[in-house]
Amino acid sequence: MQDDAGRLLAWANDPVTRAAGYHPAPIHQATHARWLAERLASPSSRMFIGMEGDRPVGQVRLDAEADGRLEVGISVAPEARGRGVGHAMLEAALAAARADPDLPVMAFVARIRPDNAPSLALFAGAGFRPAGVGEVAGVPCLVYERPGG
Angle 85-99/117-125 helices, nearest 10 degrees? Predict the structure, then answer.
């Protein structure tokens, strides 16, 4: 995964991705490297790179919360958007989480900005349902959940 650090940073700094996120400023390489090292070392995190043939097309990250819910984060490479790869990556990551004996899954949760229509459509199409409203980094969000079983 460390070999993918540059690719993950480029995807994270894509203008569309930054606009849909909770921290719109570009991410610096050193900050990203620290964050990625923490995620990879954490027993409660899983990160997947989606592939289309031999081409990486995006990533899905799952972070376990104390209550047995897994928070889902996803980004699709700019050149792969609009082709359904986000849905395929999301379903594969959720299946991997359910099969992971070290990761008890009660539910999956996504926190989405209300103006992020592509993510709202992706998660709704994957069986996530509205579960309330919240806030991330001072920005309002919609909370969507899907049972883990």
Answer: 50
Question: Terminal CA-to-CA distance of the chain, rounded, Å?
Answer: 28
Q: Architecture of 44-147 per CATH?
A: 3-Layer(aba) Sandwich (3.40)
Q: Average pLDDT of 78-82?
A: 93
The distance from CA 104 to its chain's CA centroid, rounded to whole angstroms, is 18
CA dist list (Å): 147 to 45, 54, 70, 108: 18, 32, 10, 6
Average pLDDT of the residues of the chain: 92
Q: Which two tokens stand for residue 70?
A: 């897994």
The number of residues making up the chain comes to 149
How many CB atoms neighbour CB 55 within 10 A? 11
Residue with tokens 């991705």: 17
pTM: 0.91
What are 113-142's pLDDT values in tens digits?
999 999 999 999 999 999 999 999 899 999
Residue 87 in tokens: 């849905």
